Amino acid sequence: MKHLIDIMDLSIEELDEMIDVAKDIIADPEKYAHKCAGKKLATLFFEPSTRTRLSFEAAMYELGGNVLGFSEAQSSSAAKGESVSDTIRTVGCYADIIAMRHPKEGAPIAGTRRSTVPVINAGDGGHNHPTQTLTDLLTISREKGRLDHLTIGLCGDLKFGRTVHSLINAMSRYTGNRFVLISPEELKIPEYLRYETLIKKEQDFVETGDLEGAMPELDILYMTRVQRERFFNEQDYLRLKDSYILTPDKLEYAKEDLSILHPLPRVNEISVAVDDDPRARYFEQVRNGKYIRMALILKLLKEAGTIN
């Protein structure tokens, strides 16, 4: 049974194939309107979500399928102490594919061990968020026409930002990419990621606290929020939450074809005044999330032998 727990579960060939399918869906949505007729997606969201949950639901509906599930742990048997493994095995009796978000790192992979249907990790704590990374890859591909030889700035919470971790892992597999890691000292990328993905693989990267100084060289600026829910200490969160706020004046020396991305939700790290800048692509990024999740659902259901 094929699952998607980590973006590294997918080969470059599979990534490129899904991006191509997503682009075909955008070009000809009617062609895919009944691909999942009679099939059901279960969305098991043990922590809050807007974009990810709704984009999965929209994706399945636009493929002609149906959706069931829950949007908080308290509305599931987890509130009674049921294990993730038992929840997934139970829901697999009702649905053909499962998308799951959980606050604990590793929970989705634990759930796959006894699953009879494909499971998609829709985010596990501060660890991985592979479908957001697929969204990011589709967006970068559509914006730049390629996924290689780019300078990518990642700014904000790089320690707890699961979207950042997954994106670095994915983009490090394409030739010639350079990473500019912009964060306060306390929110630098985890040591395991720095060593295993960047140093060990001899990736070109630099760490800095200076967003404006880095701006002129960037092809992509990936902003992230400082995540209150990942902090154990409220004082630390309050001290760091406004470390970087992107405003129009900070874009003065940016490239004309810079693409500004953000996994959303934002708090105040991107001023609403930036929204009208043609380089702001984060709402188009949201739209791309639906198309790439459609491509992913199709891929996993085909590999499970559930659809043709």
Structure description:
The chain is an alpha/beta fold. It is 35% helix and 15% strand. It contains 10 helices and 9 strands. It has helices at 12-27, 51-62, 84-91, 107-112, 130-144, 162-171, 191-199, 211-214, 234-240, 282-303; strands at residues 40-45, 66-70, 97-102, 119-124, 151-155, 178-182, 204-208, 220-223, 259-261. The chain has a 5-stranded parallel beta sheet with strand order 7-6-5-8-9, covered by helices on one side. Strands 2-1-3-4 form a 4-stranded parallel beta sheet. Strand 5, helix 6 (162-171) and strand 6 form a beta-alpha-beta unit. The chain starts with 11 loop residues before the first helix and ends in a 5-residue tail after the last helix.
Largest sheet report: 5 strands, parallel
Strand order of the largest sheet: 7-6-5-8-9
How many strands appear in the DSSP assignment? 9
> Alpha-carbon distance between the termini?
16 Å
Instruction: Give me the secondary-structure category.
Output: alpha/beta
How do the SSEs run, as a string of H and E? HEHEHEHEHEHEHEHEHEH
Radius of gyration: 19 Å
